[in-house]
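Retry 2 of 3 after timeout on previous attempt. Resubmitting C-alpha cells to design endpoint.
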C-alpha cells in the first residue's frame, strides 16, 4: 500500500469517528432535555414481577437440569470404567487359574505316561486287595473243611473205604489251608515292607526343620484338613494351598521357594511334602 492510500484511509477513519461522536452527543442532549414521566400502576408492576420470577425460575430449572445431566454422565462414565476394570481383573484371574489347570493337566499326563512305574500308594492298595482275596479264600477253605468234618460225623456208619476217602479229602483241605496261611503271611510281610518303604520315601520330602514343619501343620494342613489332604490329588492339594497362600507370611513362602516347594504356586514336590507331613501325623 502506497503512502497516499495510507493517508486516505487514516483521514476516512478520523471522519467516521468524529461523525459517530457528534451523533452520540446530539442524542444524549436530546434525551436529557426530553421530559420523562414514568407511571406504573399495581397490576403492571405485579405482571412485571411475575414475568421476572418466571424467567428466574426457568433459568433455575435449566441450570439444575444441566447439573443433573452432567452428574448422570459422570456416574455413567465411572460405572463403565469400574466395570471395565472389574472385567479386566476377572479375565486376569481366570487366565491365571487356567494356566494352573493346564500345568496340573500336564503333570497328570506325565504321571499317566510314566513308563509303567507305580507309586507306593498303588503298590500298597494292590497288596491290600490281594490280601483280602487270600483271606476270603482261607475263609472258604475253612468252611469247606468244616462241612467235610460234619459230613464225616453224620455218616460215621460208612464203610472203611468211604471213611478213608473222606479223611483224604480232609487232609487235602488242611494242606490247602496251610498253603493259604503261608501266602497270607507273605502278603502281610510284603505289606509291612511296602509301608516302611512308603514311609521312608515320604520322609525324603520332609525337611529337617522342626519349626517349619510345625508351622506347616498348624497353618496349612489343619486348615485344609488332614484326612481331606491325604485323599486329594496333587492338583487338588495345589488348589487348596492356593486358597491359603495370601494369608501366609512372606518368609514362609520364601522358605518353600528355597526348597523348590513353591514356584508361582505349589510344585509337585510341595504337594508331596504336605501329603508326607499329614501322613506322618496320622501314624
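Retry 2 succeeded. Sequence:
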Amino acid at each position: 500500500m502506497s503512502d497516499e492510500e495510507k493517508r486516505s484511509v487514516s483521514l476516512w477513519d478520523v471522519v467516521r469517528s468524529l461523525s459517530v461522536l457528534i451523533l452520540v452527543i446530539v442524542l444524549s442532549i436530546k434525551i436529557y432535555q426530553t421530559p420523562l414521566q414514568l407511571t406504573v400502576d399495581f397490576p403492571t408492576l405485579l405482571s412485571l414481577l411475575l414475568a421476572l420470577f418466571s424467567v428466574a425460575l426457568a433459568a433455575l430449572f435449566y441450570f439444575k437440569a444441566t447439573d443433573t445431566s452432567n452428574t448422570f454422565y459422570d456416574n455413567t462414565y465411572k460405572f463403565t470404567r469400574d466395570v471395565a476394570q472389574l472385567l479386566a481383573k476377572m479375565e486376569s484371574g481366570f487366565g491365571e487359574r487356567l494356566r494352573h489347570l493346564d500345568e496340573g493337566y500336564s503333570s497328570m499326563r506325565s504321571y499317566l505316561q510314566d513308563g509303567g512305574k507305580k507309586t507306593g500308594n498303588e503298590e500298597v492298595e494292590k497288596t491290600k486287595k490281594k490280601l483280602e482275596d487270600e483271606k476270603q479264600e482261607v475263609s472258604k477253605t475253612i468252611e469247606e473243611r468244616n462241612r467235610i468234618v460234619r459230613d464225616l460225623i453224620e455218616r460215621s456208619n460208612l464203610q472203611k473205604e468211604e471213611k478213608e476217602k473222606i479223611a483224604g479229602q480232609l487232609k487235602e483241605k488242611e494242606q490247602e489251608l496251610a498253603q493259604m496261611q503261608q501266602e497270607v503271611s507273605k502278603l502281610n510281610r510284603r505289606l509291612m515292607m511296602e509301608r516302611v518303604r512308603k514311609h521312608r520315601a515320604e520322609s525324603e520330602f520332609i525337611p529337617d526343620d522342626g519349626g517349619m514343619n510345625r508351622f506347616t501343620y498348624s497353618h496349612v494342613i489343619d486348615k485344609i484338613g488332614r484326612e481331606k489332604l491325604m485323599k486329594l490329588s496333587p492338583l487338588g492339594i495345589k488348589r487348596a494351598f492356593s486358597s491359603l497362600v495370601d494369608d501366609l507370611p512372606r518368609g514362609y513362602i520364601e522358605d518353600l521357594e528355597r526348597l523348590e516347594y513353591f514356584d508361582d504356586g505349589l510344585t509337585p514336590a510341595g504337594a508331596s511334602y504336605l501329603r508326607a507331613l499329614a501322613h506322618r501325623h496320622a501314624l
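Attempt log closed. The radius of gyration is 50 Å.
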